[in-house]
Every structure is written in C-alpha cells, then in structure tokens.
Amino acid sequence: MTTLKDDPGDTFPIPRDKWPTKAHAPDVLTFELGDRSFKDLDPVARRRMFVNFAHDTIDLGKGSRVVPGGKKGTPTEDHPLRPVAYCDAVAMGESAKIRTAFLGDTGRASSCGMFVRNLYKMIGVMVPEYAAPYKPEQVIAKEEAFAKTIGARIVPGTKEIVDGVSKLRVPQKGDAVYMHNGKKGDESHQHMFVVEGWDDETMKRNGDLTQHNYTVLAYHSLQGGAGSNAEFPADGGCMATRSGTTVFSVESPSVWKHNDLKVQWWIDLDTLVEKGTDGQPYVAPLRHARY
Length: 291
Description:
This protein is an alpha+beta fold. The protein has one domain (16-287). 23% of the residues lie in helices and 29% in strands. The chain is built from seven helices and 14 strands. The strands form four sheets. The protein has a six-stranded antiparallel β-barrel, surrounded by six helices. It has a two-stranded antiparallel ribbon with strand order 1-14. Strands 3-4 form a two-stranded antiparallel ribbon. A hairpin with a 2-residue loop joins strand 12 and strand 13. The longest helix has 13 residues, at 43-55. The radius of gyration is 19 Å and the shape is globular. The two termini are 19 Å apart. The model has no long low-confidence stretch (mean pLDDT 90).
C-alpha cells in the first residue's frame, strides 16, 4: 500500500505557486511556474497548452505493476512512484489524507472530476471552493455552478453563427464535457473528460465537419476516472488517468448519447479563462517518466 505524508508546517490547500517545490514523485511528475497568465495567451495557444497539460498528467493510476521476482520468486513492484504521481495529477496541493483517498477501491475514489479540477487550478480558475480543502462529491457540481455564473457552461442544442448561418455548437479542443445517465441522485453513472480533438476518421465516415451535419460526435478524450488495463490491473475500476475515444450518437440537436450516458453540458475554455481566472501565472506539469 502506498504511504503518503505531509511536510511539517504545510497548510492546505497548498497554493499553486508553491507546487514546483512540493511534487511528491519528482522522478515522474513535477510542476513549473509559468511566466505569464493563461489570459495572456491567444485562444489557439491556450487550448493547445491546456491539452498539453492534460497529456502530461495521463497514464498514471493507483496501481504499481507487479513483476516476477528472482530465484526466490518474490514479486516486486515496478514503478512504485506511479501511484504517488497519480495523486499529484488529480489532487495536488491537498493533504496526504485526501490524496490517499484517491487510492481507494470504491466509485467515490473516481478521479474524473478531480482530473479537471487539478487542471483548472493550474491555470488559475477561481471556483470559490478551490480555496478550501477538497470535500467529496462536490467537485463537478461546484465547477458547473461557477461556469454557469460566468457564461462558460454550454448545453447541447446551443446554436452559434458560422459564416452568417446558425449551426449547432459542439465542444472544442480543451473544453471539459460532462455526461450523466439522467437519473437524479445516481452519481455512479457519470463521467467528465477533456477534449483532445476530433476523431477525424470517425467523423468523416459519419458526419460533415464543414457543414456541421452531425450524426455522431467523435472525440479523442483525456480523463481521470479511467479503469484498469492488462498492464496495470491494480488501477481498479476508476482510479487512473488515460486517453481514449468517446463517441456520441446525435439523436437530436440536444440529445447526444454515449452508451447510457447523455451529455448534460460542457465548459467552454475560452470563456472560462477570460472571465473566470485570476490573471496570475499558470503552473505547468512536467512529465519525466511515462509507463
């Protein structure tokens, strides 16, 4: 079992400008203070950089790979710092007690919302609750509420004007998409991910990116809350950060479904940065080892 510890004298949450000196698995993941704010970047650059931040915090999880031992056959852990880096990728700046909770074995340890929260903290998003220690089962709701107050929360069916014509608005690179099965109180069937970009091959087969005549929406996605794979079975059902492909069937302009999950809303990165960040230098993750 991975053991996490706090440094003497720390108070939580640790401000992001202190993160570069507080990384817990520096051989795997560290943080660097930027020389400008996210507001200072042009929209194309900020979306590209935000996705790069997400890339540097995927391929981590709560499990270490177990490899065969020597002559005595004793198995050993390979990459024992992987779970420690995972905790920094989803809950940097929080206490050891809170970070350890994300190494658990229940759905409450799912990190999909925390993955987005950590990225938002890096760029200075001013969700009021970020100033206090994390409280379970509040992250996504608080981010939605904040995004709504600044006009960054977009719902399926929203239209935009493209070349003088009203077209269906859809999530873009760097936006965070939230989906749920629609059953009130059922938090076990929900997910949140960051859009890496279009899955162009699927889109070309099923829709027209130029005319916005969508029958499907196919994205390359970056997310926490991902399940285990053959290499890291100890990641469990929802305790890893990975890339993937997420395809929605467009049943109507306002109904987009992925299996039993329906897109409820997404957060537009440009509006979030312009209206919802503090204007202070961002913190960038730096990846040093990838498993």
